[in-house]
Write a structure and sequence with these properties.
146 residues, mainly alpha, Lysozyme, two-stranded antiparallel ribbon, 7 helices, 6 strands
Length: 146
Amino acid sequence: MKIGIKGIALISEFEGCKLHAYADPATHGEPYTIGVGHTGTVDGVKVHLGMTITQEKANELLEKDTERFTPHIPTPATQNQFDAMLSLCFNIGPGAFDKSLIKRMHKLGYHKGAAKAFLMYNKAAGKVMAGLTRRREAEKALYERG
C-alpha cells in the first residue's frame, strides 16, 4: 500500500511546510526540522539552523519519508486506516510506532481499541501538547472512517 491523498493532507496540515530549518518545539533544539516535518539529513547534510530548501525539495523529502515509513504500517488496512497510522508513525517515529498499542491492536483486528489508542500519543517531552491532541483526534477520526 501507499499513502493516499488524505494521509498526505493530514501530515501536511499538522506538520506545515517550512523551507527554513527550525528547532523542535518540545526541546527548543534538536532534532531540527525542515520541509514537511523532515528531520535527519538533506542530500547528506544534517538538518541545521540556517538551512533552506525549495518547495520542490520539500515535496521530494515528504514522498521519501512516507515511503520509508510505509513498511511499518500493518496490512490489511483500509486506505483511511493506513493513512492515519502512517501519519502517527511519521510523527512519533517507526521505533515508537512499532511498539505502539495501535499497531498491536490493529494487527489483532481490534479496530475500535486501536482508534481509541491514538489519543494516548499526545505528549512530547512528557507534556501533553494541544497540537498533538488535535492531531491524534484527527488521526483517530480518519482511522474510524474505515
